[in-house]
Amino acid sequence: MVVCMAFFMKPDKPQDTGNTKKAALLPDDHLKWRYQDASFNEEFKRWRKENKSDVGYYYVDKPKELTYQDRVGFIKDYPEAVETSSLRHVYNMIGISLLIFSIVDILYFYIAPFILGKLGFDISYDFYSNTTYGNEWLRVIMLYVWGIGRRIMPFYICKKRFNMPFSIMFPTKVTNKPMFKYSVPLMMLVCNVCSMCAAFYMLFLKSLNISSPDGFYLPENKGALAAALVAQLIIIPIISEMAAHGVYLQLFRQFGDGSAIILTAIIASLVTYNITDFCYFFVASIVIGYFTIRTGSIITSIIMRITLHLFLYGGALISTFCTTTVGLILSLSITLLSTLIGIIASIHFLIKHSDSFGMTMSKRYLTFSQKCTTAFTCIPVVLWITITFIITLLNINFSF
Which end of the chain has fewer CB atoms surrounding its CB within 10 Å, N or C? Predict the structure, then answer.
């Protein structure tokens, strides 16, 4: 509800990001829609001037001009064709990183347990139940290697192919302090709303005799459980957000903030390979992406993602270690309390800081449907979508 209002609300002063220091944006800067601070914009200018590649980026020195392509200059004739070409280059690089991402997932889910089992390790994978069995500490080690390894590739490709500075990939300075301050309580409300919507969605899937296995791994050994929770609640959320709303979001933003939020959300939800979780992560990722752009900092997305994982794994822990009655009471209490906190925080934020919430969308030549169509002309993206569809299909349980 809160995020939807943003697309219809415009701040009274788009340049004022809620920071008391009003020198956050450069005068006449073509990237004022980025809601970043002056140092970020200067670093962005320096990066594009010093790094010439085949990928076009929107320039910042001449606000009256819209499109600039590396090695070509400012484009006045057929700019939509140039934007399509530039977007295709970005899709190709992102598609390659996602392909490697999926290959690592295949190794982790299906091949590694088989090979380690043949080498004498206590681990195996049951294809029919879609479950991995074996030594809990070994599984936790694999969780760390997989969770970190699959997300390193976007960083490597952007540094190698685009020579993209870390300060551009991971902006940290908060330019909208009121929105940053309320991000966690608002995320608590979003988690509960998503959970309710997901419940109806799962009922629909069950009516079609479709379900997916539980994606939460909770070891029985206390030490292994603690190590697994550290990975799932801290390490993986941080690295995931650095890849999704750091690298991918910043690459897509040159083609429009709105499309960048949605495209990043699609990627974040598809890589779950879980049809029952797709809608939940899609909506949550849209909210996180909006807050990330509007506050100007990757730190916002990290704390919101950690909040999301706390809700997900908190529910799994309650259902695992509590009796049915105690678990139900505890779950309802947490849900009601967090929803109440989220609603009060949302109302208070909109009353006190409504001018810090709306987002000014910058026009682009391509429509969102054209941007999506361009993705299907990139072979790496098509291959990744195909592999993702196959893995998701393998994770579906059909009951008749």
Answer: C
In whole angstroms, what is the distance from residue 339 CA to residue 52 CA? 49
Structure tokens at 165: 């500075």
pTM of structure:
0.84
Q: Which of 147, 316, 126 is nearest to 227 (CA)?
A: 147
Residue 13: beta bridge partners? Answer: none
Note the pLDDT tens digit of each residue in 331-355.
899 999 999 999 999 999 888 888 8
Q: How many CB atoms lie within 10 A of CB 191?
A: 26
Pairwise CA distance, residues 348 & 341, whole Å: 11
Distance CA 385, CA 161 (A): 22
Spatial separation of the C-alpha atoms in residues 314 and 203, rounded to whole Å: 22
Count, residues in the chain: 400
What phi and psi, each to the nearest 5 degrees, are found at residue 188?
Answer: -60, -40
pLDDT digits (tens, 9 = 90+) for 292-336: 999 999 999 999 999 999 998 888 888 888 888 888 899 899 999
In a 13 Å sphere around the CA of 183, the CA atoms on its Cβ side amount to 30
Q: Which long-range contacts (CB under 8 A, 24 or more apart) does 9-12 make?
A: 9/354, 9/357, 9/358, 10/358, 10/360, 11/354, 11/355, 11/356, 11/357, 11/358, 11/360, 12/355
